[in-house]
């Protein structure tokens, strides 16, 4: 991409600048000629795709499709991708439901190649949604090349509220279901663990244990374990700011510890 987002500093100061200039920076990014060509190719050719194999066989189409869901790094796993698309997500044993990352579920649901489903690749408005997601995800990826924590914060602002409010059938999620959705999204899991002051190796525990620990920590930190509280913009802002502040603090503490160790070795 020819346009790189401007982020003058890390932490809350850099985040405040990114927030205040987001619309202008995103507008410039959206005009990137490479991005425009990729999306134009996608919209012109996706309607010709009738099967999962058709999509996987066209590298340029697949690249846009995967990137729209933050899965671009998996582009060489073509056999797995085709299996995810062909299985869909309705069956419990579908591959997308086994991968532990809900982005695969969103990915397969966007095209509907699963058993008994009618592919939606011929519906322009549906495929435009994918192309639009590609632009947003590409911008967030560009931000992440400079500061991963800000990329995660942008993703949380975009996705968190929807993920903790309704399930795929439009039914309200239980509190346990809310937390399971967070754990199913690697970026949001990282954000929540950091904001709650929990160690990264929490993910090694049984899922039920993870949920219980995170719920208890949320009650102490935010006064509730009901994640729909973040539908309040002030509460969401508090969560994001807490995450960014803790990330910066952790980085500073790590650097200080490394510096102290180096000093002790030199003195020895």
Q: Name the poorly predicted regions.
A: 258-266
Helix content: 55-70%
Total strands: the figure is 0
Q: Which sequence of SSEs, written as H and E, runs from N to C?
A: HHHHHHHHHHHHH
CATH architecture assignment of the largest domain = Orthogonal Bundle
Distance between the termini: 48 Å
Classified by CATH, the class of the largest domain is Mainly Alpha
How many H/I helical runs? 13
**CA radius of gyration:** 20 Å
- Output mean pLDDT: 91
Q: How would you characterize the largest beta sheet?
A: none
Q: What fold name goes in the CATH topology slot of the largest domain?
A: AGR_C_984p-like
Q: CATH superfamily of the largest domain, called what?
A: AGR C 984p-like
| Domain module tally | 2
Any idea what the shape is? globular
Describe what this molecule looks like in 3D:
- Pfam families: DUF1217 (PF06748).
- InterPro entries: AGR-C-984p-like_sf, DUF1217.
- It comes from Pseudophaeobacter arcticus.
- This is DUF1217 domain-containing protein.
- The structure is a single chain.
- With 268 residues, the chain is mainly alpha-helical.
- The protein folds into two domains: 1-146, AGR C 984p-like (AGR_C_984p-like); 147-257, no CATH class.
- 67% of the residues lie in helices and 0% in strands.
- It is built from 13 helices and no strands.
- The protein has helices spanning 11-30, 33-45, 52-57, 59-67, 78-87, 95-98, 102-111, 124-144, 148-163, 175-183, 186-195, 207-222, 233-267.
- α10 (175-183) packs across α12.
- The longest helix has 35 residues, at 233-267.
- The chain is globular and about 50 Å long.
- The protein starts with 10 loop residues before the first helix and ends with a helix.
- The model is unreliable at 258-266 (pLDDT under 50).
